[in-house]
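Ticket #4471: structure export looks truncated?
Reporter: QA, pipeline team
Priority: medium

Steps to reproduce: submit the single chain below to the structure queue and open the exported record.
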Amino acid sequence: PIPIPGSEFTLEADAVILAIGQRPDLSLLPSDVEVSRRGIVVDPETLATSREGIFAGGDAVTGPRNAVEAIAAGHRAAEAIHRYLSGEEVEFLPRVDEERVVELSDEEIEERLSKWGVEQGGRAEMPTLPLEKRLKGFDEVELGLTEEQAIAEARRCLACAGCSECLACEEVCGPKCIDHRMEEEYLDLKVGVIVLATGYDLLDAPLLRRYGYGVYENVIDGLQFERLASPSGPTGGRILLKNGQEPRAIAFLHCVGSRDERGVEYCSRICCMYTLKQAHLAREKTKAKVYEFYIDMRAGGKGYEEFYERIQEEGIHFIRGKAAEVERRDGRLVVRAEDTLLGRVVEVPVDMVVLATGMVPAKGAQEVARLFNISCSPDGFFLEAHPKMRPVGTHTDGIFLAGCCQGPKDIPDTVAQASAAATQAIILMNKGVVEIEPITAEVRPEFCSGCRICLNLCPYAAIGFDEERGVAEVNPLLCKGCGICVAACPSEAVLVKHFTTEQILAQIEGALAWR
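Actual output as written to the record:
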């Protein structure tokens, strides 16, 4: 800049920030290394300096540039140094391939844009402060895009949509995992073992509306609170209300939908402990008053009781009694419950309510059960073969259960059950030989009328039908000899090995004769 006499003026400020730029400190370089006003002088092809054996790159050569260009210069200099130390010709250092651009006609471009649903349009114009206002102060010049403009700009990103089909990724992929010509297809896989792990869903029952869920703002469930408390969440880990303020009081309601005739009658097991953890996080992050409304505290696990005692010492208010309802009053949420220890009804005004909703089988679990012929318990979860001896197995050999598809459980129990299921699967696959039950059903074709009653009754899907002969057939690999088909067959065509009618009668006669 050229100073103009008489144009000087004084500005009052509380702080002064010097934006002085940057330049490399070249004072340590040997005197025979040539430098210029911008930095070190190098060969543009090899990055070699004027002194043999010294190479340079990055901002010390080009001046201030971006990190990507500095990294590229580092790779290029490393290749040059390697060639120099190996005695190779540095001058013939291969250049980085220029970026390839796909050549498309206007018609092809229009076709691909329409295929990907890309709408062409101009970029949003950044609104700026008028010139006369800029001269009067230090207000921000660029005022920022509106929410609608920001969303529209984000949707313009072609990198998030269609591929340009340059096929460069196919060439650089070493294992050749990318195939642009692959089409959607269904595969039939032959497997020896199946592990079912369909997970769970949170209860979504009408009774949740009694607690204001979906009716009032700031009434959320446990998973939503977990998302708020996560550092990668929408608030960066801060517990905030809908209006962006921190809550002064938070209520956690236990057993919402669990142990309830209007929801599910069983205990969801995990609610007590994760609600205690969330109460600890709320107390730690907001310093708000925290209330826990519970029926009874079920801390059945290693270290769980100690954690419960620790939470009690943090100043969290425990109210023993199930919350009856949540209503909005005077701009706040009011939790109404019966304190069974004091024997009276209490009303607690809070800013946020967190519901510990019950766990239910995942959507589609019933279809999976029918597909694999798996029995379900009355609560809808998959039924294990035996609650003590075979907790991860099913009545169908080769199908195992893991996780919450078998019932509500926390992470340690889920990991343990998954490990057990994987172990059982490995044992079965390594056997190489399948052991079948000695007691299985068999069909006498001369008596079978082809009524097919037994097909739908078999819990193991072990009975098929021979269309050519018109008779039922039993697969001995699947049959467990339960005898349901024997009792249901109207023509008495089905027998169970070692338990025929004659054998059973002989056993009865022998028992009576002994008496």
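Status: closed, not a bug. The export was complete when the record was re-opened. Leaving a note from the reviewer for reference: The chain has 14 helices and 16 strands.
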